[in-house]
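S.,

Sequence below, as promised.
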Amino acid sequence: MRKVYLLEIILAIWLIVLIMLFLPLIVKAGDSGGGGMIAFTFDDGPNSIQTKRLLDGLSERNAKATFFVVGEKLDFESDRPNIAENRALVERMVREGHEIGNHTYTHCWLNKISEEKVAFELSKTNELIKEITGSTPKYMRPPGGSALTAPWVRKLSSPMITVCWGYYDTRDWQCRNVDKMVKTIVENTFDGDIILLHDNYETSVETALRAMDILAKQGYRFVTIDELLNRNTGNGWELDPMRIYCTMRPGDRSHLKQVES
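The prediction came back faster than expected:
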């Protein structure tokens, strides 16, 4: 029995070493009980209609969120509609305590374009955000998680911190079943989770607000990515631009496999 027990300990230690060596992310998650912090994040906006609805709902709930915005939706020189309205929404986000992140200029897969193009996608979006808010984003999210297998993308995006999403994906860009998406979020979220949604769909906005109402009754607070990731800094855990930050349940091999692929 002692030999078997010792073998299990050795295997467990070896598994931890392998994860630290090869997994390009840092994970910080609490248990699945009620209470704690959750970061709701919204990609692909702003949307002149749905983002306004979302901001109204967040304000009513005293909830904070992070918006990873697409640069060309803020650029008067692009052919996108509602630029003035979109820029006003970004101003409102900052005014109401939300966080703005970089989601590239054209929403392209960064690992499939040249380094010069990546540099443009990120720098142009940062330029537009700073023009509106006065500050350069601290965080970026690569469309489709396209920096997972491309460390050189993270090097180009430095000093911004790369943030992906959490334990599960509602796939709200594809699913329009609000009840199903709310159920997915409520049944799977945990302290320290990062939830991904898109603020250009009516169903996604409804999903976010309904899920927040349920989770708030369980004691959760809804915070920005910056507040979530920095709650433990200073204890030997510092943010690193060359790593990818997301959340997963401890010991969940299915998510490990997804990230490694």
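The radius of gyration is 19 Å.

Coffee later?
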